[in-house]
Design brief:
This protein is mainly alpha-helical. It contains ten helices and no strands. It is elongated.
Length: about 180
């Protein structure tokens, strides 16, 4: 699993919130100003990240939206939106801060997942030693690749198994 880039993340958010399959700036600007106000923050952040502020500005007719776009593009000029630490550098309006917190959560999801796998590995190794279960028995019973299970349990290579399979191993050892 890879960390998302800000532009990739905000693109997926726009597609999800708008229900549109393309990033038609004119259509998204219209939706954000009329029927889907939740799009506004993501659309402004997308325009800033993708360098499309002027293009978005050409499709806006609401003064409040135009002012917000101008203020945020000025505030975030030359800032790296791919770095979640931007929240510490800039004081943003609450709506935009919430959007960036959502990105930060997506960005840190890989760390959370790896920490969960590490905890499951520690518990599995402890249970395996207590119960004397060989790696081959675990991989055979759970129908997992023996090499990956062996590398995971012997060397703690958490990248060899998914979180689900790490959980399955831990539950199996606990049930014995």
């Amino acid at each position: 699993m890879r960390r998302p880039s800000f532009e990739g993340w905000v693109t997926r958010e726009l597609s999800y919130l708008s229900g549109e399959s393309t990033l038609n700036m004119r259509r998204l600007a219209y939706l954000a100003q009329t029927s889907k106000p939740r799009l506004q923050e993501r659309l402004v952040l997308y325009a800033i990240a993708a360098g499309k502020v002027e293009r978005l500005r050409s499709f806006l007719y609401r003064e409040d939206f135009l002012e917000e776009l101008a203020a945020l593009s000025q505030m975030l000029r030359e800032k790296n939106l791919d770095d979640p630490a931007i929240l510490d550098e800039v004081q943003l309006p609450d709506r935009y801060e919430k959007a960036l917190l959502s990105f930060k959560a997506a960005y840190q999801r890989i760390d959370t997942r790896n920490e969960s796998k590490k905890l499951r590995w520690e518990k599995s190794v402890q249970l395996q030693k207590e119960k004397g279960v060989p790696n081959s028995q675990i991989s055979h019973y759970l129908n997992l690749d023996a090499g990956n299970v062996n590398t995971y349990l012997k060397h703690g290579a958490i990248e060899k198994l998914s979180l689900d399979n790490a959980t399955r191993i831990m539950k199996y050892l606990h049930s014995l």
